[in-house]
Design a protein that fits this description.
With 307 residues, the protein is α/β, with parallel strands linked by helices. It contains ten helices and nine strands.
């Protein structure tokens, strides 16, 4: 079971309130176990989810540990912070970083949380575990996305001085952004950092999964924003990259380039550094002169969303 804020909590799996008594929890577990068993029409996946939920909160000790686990207020602080890590470059120098990774998503999380709590309600700790887990999925997803963006930024920072990254890049409106733009010897990449809290896959030309609402089209929105940015800067992206937690994307997936849309790859986070360093099979690597020229264009043209 994922530790993502966007993931379904063990309480939700068992169908009880986080304030349920131990006895209510036990009764709910037994009931869900019977209902989800494959022999009575349930699925192996749901049966396994019920067992995992019980492992997380079934005993007083495990429940106390789960209930007390906090999500960080920020997991990225400049080029030295973060929860993810990358092997340092041989020179020990970090990538050039611009912008505030995760900043816009953090602010949206806080704004939505205050709106949900109600006008006049004082929130002493917006990162309190019980508050986060009781919030609607849309709010939890915003925090999960902020953490994903911060983790991606930390990985990028370890690539070395030959790389430059811009975070929270504006396109047309503050609500329409590219999470990361990365320039290096392998090319120019637009990156979407995501964490929907459960596995996703490519179906035809879109990302789908149990956690996505009907009508959500994250890949189409990402490609549109990247096209707008590329047109305004007069550049061409080598590829569009969607990066998600390893447990959400067990294997890399890709869509070939089509018309003016570059290739799209959906990869687990553990593969991001390799893709940014080595490029994508079959694609020509850029030259040093081209990287230097593009860096000036991007530095002069990129604008950032407001936090």
């Amino acid at each position: 079971m994922s530790d993502s804020p966007a993931a379904t909590s063990p309480y939700e799996v068992l169908g009880v309130s986080p304030s349920a008594t131990d006895e209510e929890l036990r009764r709910a577990y037994r009931r869900k176990l019977r209902q989800s068993h494959p022999d009575v029409g349930g699925s192996a996946a749901s049966f396994h989810a019920v067992q995992l939920a019980w492992e997380r909160i079934g005993s007083p000790e495990s429940r106390a540990a789960y209930d007390g686990a906090r999500y960080p207020e920020t997991s990225y602080a400049g080029t030295a912070g973060g929860t993810a890590s990358a092997r340092p470059s041989s020179s020990g120098m970090k990538a050039r970083m611009h912008g505030h990774p995760g900043g816009h998503s953090r602010q949206r999380y806080l704004a939505l949380l205050r709106e949900w709590a109600g006008r006049g309600t004082t929130i002493d700790d917006p990162y309190a575990p019980d508050l986060i887990r009781s919030a609607p999925r849309e709010i939890r997803h915003r925090l999960a996305k902020a953490l994903a963006e911060e983790s991606t930024a930390q990985l990028i920072s370890g690539l070395g001085i030959g790389y430059t990254a811009w975070h929270d890049v504006a396109t047309r409106e503050d609500t329409e952004k590219i999470d990361h733009v990365v320039l290096g010897p392998a090319g120019l990449f637009a990156i979407l950092s995501e964490d929907w809290g459960s596995p996703v896959q490519l179906k035809r030309t879109e990302i789908v999964g149990d956690a996505l609402e009907p009508g959500e089209e994250p890949l189409d929105e990402f490609a549109t924003a990247a096209r707008i940015l590329a047109k305004s800067l007069r550049v061409r992206f080598t590829a569009l990259i969607v990066v998600a937690p390893d447990e959400a994307v067990p294997e890399s997936m890709s869509l070939p380039s089509r018309g003016r849309r570059p290739m799209v790859v959906v990869i687990p986070r553990s593969r991001l550094v390799g893709v940014l360093r080595d490029g994508i099979a079959g694609m020509e690597r850029g030259s040093f002169e081209k990287v230097f020229e593009l860096r000036s264009v991007l530095q002069n043209g990129i604008r950032f969303v407001e936090d």
